[in-house]
Amino acid sequence: MPEKHLEKDAILKVVNVDGGYVIRYGGRPVKFIHAVDNVSLELYPNRIVGIAGESGCGKSTLAKIIYGAIEPPLEVKQGSVLLKVSEEYEDLLKADRAYVAKEIWWKVISYIPQNSMNVLNPMKKIRDSFIETFKFHGMAVDKKEVTKYISEVFSTFGVPVDAINAYPHQLSGGMRQRIVISLSLLFDPKIVLADEPTTAVDVVTQLGILTSLKEWQREKKSSMIIVSHDMGVHAYMDDEVVIMYAGNIVERGEAEDVFNDPLHPYTKILISSLIKKGEKTIKKGIAGSPPDLSNPPPGCRFHPRCPFAMDICRREKPPSIEVEKSRFVACWLYAKR
Ligand code: SF4
């Protein structure tokens, strides 16, 4: 998005980020999978922004870059992730790694990873995982104190306090998921990045976790980025939604506006695939497959699958057009020519 949309009071500004995976053979780079292509977005206090799109569209890679968790083969070619710490912005992509791990992660920005139910150490009781986290962040808490600290966040997520004495394998997947989410929120971070926070759980558990996450966010007035392929999750959670396709943001706006009146052909198909209450028909998916991101099609990356593709779509990449305040779409159908 253009610079003029980067408002001063944003808590997080992602500016022209380009990144992806370098595939090496015999130590030499042979391929670059361009998963995130010139992406910009902002996050404001007390807001939930959803990042939506099919698997492989770059949304989880973008989440990793925003968190600053950049490990090979992931590389960032350009851009900034400006996080407001106190009154100043710090670029997470340029900051010292040890400083980010100790002072920024968990305290200012926290990450709920995909399949988080499997990240707990199977050899440790839940209590010890929490004590370890406190210690890493310079808080000396003993076995008794840890129960006091976690009781509030455990009750928000429906975890009985005595689960702290269990080993992970003694708990259900849904309970482990709730515990990892509680662990991520332990220090009341200003920003929470949740990557597919409920994909591995059943629908009832999913609704419970999402409701708790939203209640926690509203109460703490923190900000949240929810990454999910599931448009139902976005319809339930988001204040604003960002639609990604093949590494690009193709539409962005207030969630209510995007769900009521999607503009981009890809967004229209995503939203029409949502099953409405009482509907019994099986919805069609999107014809074709997402492109190979090491060799994406020229022009609009959606053109091979788009029912409205025109000549210009095959040649030129559409710009991001602000069709109304804070509503953007990258599609030639909306360009004034
Ligand atoms: S730019 Fe063209 S191909 Fe791309 S979504 Fe719009 S109409 Fe379809």
Walk me through the structure.
With 337 residues, the chain is an alpha/beta fold. It has a single domain, classed as 3-Layer(aba) Sandwich (Rossmann fold). The chain has ten helices and twelve strands. The strands form two sheets. An eight-stranded mixed sheet has the order 6-7-8-3-9-10-12-11, with helices on both faces. It has a four-stranded antiparallel sheet with strand order 2-1-4-5. Strand 7, helix 6 and strand 8 form a beta-alpha-beta unit. Helix 3 packs across helix 4 and helix 4 crosses helix 5. The chain is globular. The N terminus is likely disordered. The chain binds iron/sulfur cluster. The site of iron/sulfur cluster has 14 residues, from loops.
Task: Give a short synopsis of this structure.
By secondary structure, this protein is of the alpha/beta class.
Average pLDDT, rounded to a whole number, is: 91
- Enumerate the distinct ligands: iron/sulfur cluster
Largest sheet: 8 strands, mixed
Q: List the helices and strands in order.
A: EEEHEEHEHHHEHEHEEHHHEE
Instruction: Determine the fraction of residues in helical runs and give it as a percent range.
Output: 25-40%
Architecture in CATH?
3-Layer(aba) Sandwich
Shape: globular
CATH class: Alpha Beta
Count of helical regions: 10
Strand order of the largest sheet: 6-7-8-3-9-10-12-11
Within CATH, the superfamily carries the name P-loop containing nucleotide triphosphate hydrolases
Number of domains: 1
Span between termini: 20 Å
The structural class is alpha/beta
Number of strands: 12
Q: What name is given to the CATH topology? A: Rossmann fold
Stretches with pLDDT under 50, minimum 5 residues: 1-6
Strand content: 25-35%
Rg (C-alpha, Å) = 21 Å
